[in-house]
Amino acid sequence: MKAPLIELSAIGHAFQGNRVLSDVSLTIETGQIITLIGPNGAGKTTLVKIVLSLLKPDTGTVTRAPDLRVGYMPQKLHIDPTLPLTLRRFLSLAEPSLQLCLNALAEVGIEKLIDMPLQSLSGGEMQRALLARAILRKPNLLVLDEPVQGVDVIGQEGLYRLIGQLRDRLDCGVLMVSHDLHLVMSATDEVICLNQHVCCHGHPDQVSTNPAFIELFGSRTAPYTHHHDHSHDSGDNSGSVYSGDGHHD
Q: For residue 38, what pLDDT is reported?
């Protein structure tokens, strides 16, 4: 059995005396999709920075696999509308090989847009472009911060399907940060509900009925049924999961 890609144990962190994370533990395995949810100020960004090695925790330990290669997709990219930047040029800043850039764009389904200005891409196309950049180096861990930000519901479903396909093709682990409870919970193996500490975690349909989850997100939920077309070592992940009522910041 492979060692975990990354293991965080009893992580704590504070900024200027304000504690933002306390006793947080998290393990990401190859092939696993974990989604991190929680209100604003819950410490999600801080935890992601620790996973990305951009921040060192005050307490606790972080253990990374020796061959860990991380692909990161930021929440949003702000581009000056007057900046003449094509998708080809944007990807070449990370990877000079045109063929590798084309391969990554083909994997996310937008290779025909390679010479388009970034500013002309739709919300869904832009998120796919950011995803292509994240997979350029064939990572074994993808960290995706709000990957369906600014995308309509149909586009969200397509993006979550694509993330699942990339997980299978790259044989990687995925850590997603999301507020989109309705659809994301059908696209993940495990949900971790964070509010400076881990309030609850587990399979989506377990978490959705947990009192700590309901306290944070409310009980107005609607069932969303999803059937995986692939199997996991941990068993069948099909069944009903539940949505929160809209976006939560």
A: 87
pLDDT for position 225: 36
pTM > 0.85: yes or no: no
C-alpha separations of 88 from 25, 76, 125, 223 in Å = 39, 18, 14, 41
Statement to judge: residues 108 and 188 lie in one domain: no
CB 207 within 8 A of CB 146: no
Q: Quick one: pLDDT at residue 137?
A: 84
* Structural domain boundaries, residue 184: 1-69+142-249
The 10 Å Cβ neighbour count of residue 18 is 9
Please give the sequence-ordered ranges of beta strands (E in DSSP) within 40-140, or none if there are none.
59-64, 70-73
99 lies in the same domain as 195? no
Up-side HSE of residue 31: CA atoms within 13 Å toward CB?
Answer: 9
Phi/psi of residue 17, each to 5°?
85, -10
Residue 184 CA, chain-centre distance (Å), reads: 10
